[in-house]
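Provenance and format

Records in this collection were gathered into a single text stream. Each protein contributes a sequence line and a token line. The two records reproduced below are adjacent in the stream.
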Amino acid sequence: MPLKKKASPWIWIVFLVILVAFGSGYLVFKFRHQLDRRLGDFTRKAPPFTEALKFEGVFSNFSEGILGIDVSQYQGKIDFPGLQLQLQNHQIEFVVIRATMGKDGVDARFKQNWEGFRPLPVKRGAYHYYRPNENSILQAQNFIKTAPLKSGDMIPVLDIEKHSTIQSRDRLREGLKNWLKIVEQHYGVKPMVYTGDRFFWEVLHNQGFDEYPIWVANYNTIVKPETEDWTIW
């Protein structure tokens, strides 16, 4: 009488995997709504994206606003002769060009962009990207020797978006104020500060920066920024 062949252990392993997968799927299906409800208590749903949040909606909320753009080396080589200074039926009236970064960084296309926009019917401006771990005096000097701002140009802009990893917020504020004072003394006009909503409230609000115009960056789907008394959004 022939011996019966024993079942391969792999058959039992495959069977157990299928059983576990089926059981998990069943539990997730059965308790899905309960899980969604409980997890929803600990998460914040994003606001619905409505027509008011679209490009045209911004102009309906700020009817007296004007449109501007900022450019840097990240936009690559710009075809200035073929450039259309218009976005969705709105004329571009000013451009802010990145000049410098930190104590020794210079935007690779600043000179080309600065000269390229010169003959075009837009106001030009220049901004400095502030590196919070670097010396504020050297950063101000870097901007001053790079950005040839003259009467008729937009006021200089300080771009600060990140916290320092090597100094306190108070020391960071001192450095920012130092940069602003040095640049103001050189150009004879108070610079503008570019920052985000959260950074404004955490670092700048009620800390002696109220005398400077604020350009607030906002990447959220909201109708307008939370930052107080902003000049540019």
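Adjacent record:
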Amino acid sequence: MNGAARLFRWIYESEPDGVWAAPGRVNLIGEHTDYNDGLVLPFALQERTLAAIKQRDDGLIRICSSQNPNEIIGIPTKELAPGWPAGWSGYVAGVPWALETDIGFDVAIDSSVPVGSGLSSSAALICAVGLGLNELFGLGFSRRELARRTHLTENEYVGAPTGGMDQIASLLCIEGHAILYDVRADSVDQIHFDPIGAGFEVVVVDTMVRHGHAGGEYAARREDCELSAAKLGVATLRDVAYADLDSALDKLGDEQLIKRTRHVVTENQRVLDTAAALDADDWPAVGELLTAAHTSIRDDFEASCVELDIAVDMLLDSGALGARMTGGGFGGAAIALVATEKSESARRTVRSVFADNGFVPPHIFTVVPSAGATRIA
């Protein structure tokens, strides 16, 4: 059932002009590298956000969602300005601002992407609305340009200092593939990724520990990376070659900046190594790289949390080939590459240990590399 269209009819008492869907994403590997002009390897989820939209002729935007169906937010397009409105509706209001259109519209939102779980619910929302407005208003933006502009929505309108990976993944992924995205080169390579066909599942453990990207620790890590680059005399940490890492670290003289830099540079190399392992169908190597990535982001980038670390440890103890935190961190989700026959046992173990520790019960599910954003009605 199309929950967004159903909500639209109920709230606005009319039919939408169309419904667009955009997926969340799992970043297989490559964490906190995108805003360092680095490399990432995300894939799109089957979980998506739906936006039912109808054009208006009075320059007014009206927003509602199935998560809070009794609230309708109205905003004149001429009053759009970064930071207003606050909250989730700002992600919608910022889209026409980034697309430089003053055409009004009604929109109803429904989503199956967990919020705050590191699976990019915000980009799914922005991209569903962005694709819809682009097609409905005939704005003519390519998907690459649409990804750039929707990234502006998150960075400049909402004020969340995220990289551009999420929008690229939501708009450009294809089924059965991950995207090797080189941020600096703005290049995309589709990497075949079919774990189920190889006898594995990608299991996601949503720890239910929620985070926010509009400030706090995420922004602090980005500042650390920028300071490290400045001290090294380079534009971004992408300019530090893996072969030159030791000499670069010697120049920093600050333990915190050394750790942040070491994570970013080694993580870029792990992305390349993971893409090569997938091309070679070397699934054990993929698993080892995932686990090494978690160790790096836990110890050097210090972006994990107790629940994530326990989830990763339990998944590995249950026979996963590899496991790691995914997303911005400080909460959210862990992923694991698990043989299909071990998947259910791994889930039981994680649930049991979370219960023993008095944690909120986790949401555990399998994700499948899926297609990017599209019109569905």
